[in-house]
Write a structure and sequence with these properties.
With 423 residues, the chain is mostly helical. The protein has a single domain, classed as MFS general substrate transporter like domains (Growth Hormone, Chain: A). The two termini are 36 Å apart.
Length: 423
């Protein structure tokens, strides 16, 4: 494989891990999107959507770090396998209670608890199945798999729900989890992966706390690691916030149906991630990763500030002049501008996601990696709690457009602070 991006696909176990990720992420992201839409349709409330998103995130606060400690003591392959099977079974149970809002919250919460053990085992598996010189390629491909899965989940969500209906959609998603588990079962841990420490269930409280402290200490003393964790957490929190405001943004700002939003926003954003990953692996691999991540942060902020103004930009004189010189069938519209902005947002996200994950895997050991990703997951849950509650309520009170602009201002401000204090 001549292209640098696809070098990691030369290792069979990574291919199985990647395929397992794709099926798992398609199912999980489709589930999240399905629940967001389903709750919105049942309640017509952004606040209610916030609550279901919180059911995805709150377990990370209480279980994220502890799950990382346990995963580092367990066989990561088995963790990935069992968590997929359990989540599939829970979805089958949920199919019997799909019209009960409270039941949706509860089962979604339990699924998220199980997911806390999947997360610190998934990405830390990469260094166990690929060579070190393939890490950048592997993380780029993993990023593509992740965001491509989001794209696919959003694209097929409408047809899947229409074809299968609410209850059978949940059964279909359970089947995807089981297929992901099948691919994971074929992984061979050629570089190890078996825990050096056994008997986690007998471990003392002090021993567990000591392991957690060791991971926190590494993050505290290494500016490179702490910076990467901060930016990864920020990018994931941003995705959760966007999930909360997406239905309202589509219906209240864009004046389009919620079902059309994936094609106009998620699809070009995922394409932007693909292009960003290609640039990083083939053109920008020698650039400072910290500078690339800061640029991605700036770019994300500027795009967020522009998102609510697509209609006004389309009405500008320069756009009208361009439309006069173009064939009528390709007039520049608000939807076209949305597609371009979404693409740039995906590009910016790749500039944060790929370098940050690569740094964490290069700078940490196998014994610490699961705990560090567990801490990352807990930070995402903790620091997303208030923003998710606020953006849902604020969107209902002051409008989605103002909330999105505010998010953009925060991102640009964080980018400026990195320029002043870090670079």
């Amino acid at each position: 494989m001549n292209n640098q991006l696809f070098r990691a696909f030369g290792e069979k176990s990574f291919v199985f891990l990647w395929l397992g990720e794709v099926f798992t992420q398609v199912s999980y992201n489709l589930l999240n999107f399905f629940l967001i839409l389903h709750i919105f349709e049942l309640t017509r409330s952004n606040t209610a959507v916030s609550l279901v998103v919180l059911s995805f995130t709150i377990p990370a606060i209480f279980f994220g770090i502890l799950a990382g400690v346990y995963v580092d003591r367990w066989n990561k392959k088995k963790v990935l396998l069992l968590t997929n099977i359990v989540r599939g079974i829970l979805l089958i149970i949920l199919s019997f209670f799909s019209q009960d809002v409270l039941a949706i919250y509860i089962i979604s919460f339990i699924i998220s608890i199980v997911t806390q053990f999947f997360i610190p085992a998934e990405t830390p598996m990469i260094p166990l199945v690929v060579r070190n010189n393939h890490l950048l390629s592997a993380n780029a491909l993993f990023g593509l798999g992740l965001y491509g899965s989001v794209l696919l989940a959003y694209l097929i969500s409408g047809p899947v729900i229409k074809i299968f209906g609410t209850d059978n959609t949940l059964v279909f998603l359970a089947g995807l989890f089981f297929v992901g588990a099948l691919f994971i079962s074929w992984i061979k841990m050629e570089k190890g992966g078996l825990p050096k420490k056994q008997g986690v269930l007998k471990a003392s409280k002090n021993a567990l706390l000591k392991e957690i402290y060791s991971a926190v200490d590494v993050m505290r003393t290494s500016k490179t690691i702490s910076s990467s964790i901060f930016l990864l957490a920020l990018s994931q929190i941003l995705l959760l916030i966007l999930a909360v405001v997406a239905p309202g943004y589509a219906s209240q700002v864009l004046k389009i149906s919620i079902e059309d939003f994936p094609m106009l926003f998620i699809a070009p954003a995922a394409l932007g991630v693909l292009v960003g990953a290609l640039f990083l692996v083939n053109l920008f691999h020698k650039f400072s990763r910290q500078k690339i991540m800061t640029f991605g942060l700036f770019l994300s902020g500027f795009v967020m500030m522009l998102l609510p103004f697509g209609e006004r930009i389309a009405a500008r004189d320069i756009v009208q002049v361009m439309n006069m010189s173009l064939p009528h069938i390709i007039d520049i519209t608000t939807e076209h501008l949305l597609v371009v902005l979404a693409f740039i947002l995906g590009l910016a996200n790749a500039f944060v996601f790929v370098p940050s994950n690569t740094i964490l895997q290069e700078e940490t050991s196998d014994e610490l990696r699961g705990k560090i990703y567990g801490v990352l997951n807990a930070l995402v849950g903790l620091f997303s709690l208030l923003p998710i509650l606020l953006v849902g309520s604020l969107s209902d009170i002051i409008g989605v457009d103002k909330v999105i602009i505010g998010i953009g201002v925060v991102l640009v401000s964080l980018g400026l602070s990195r320029l002043v204090f870090d670079l």
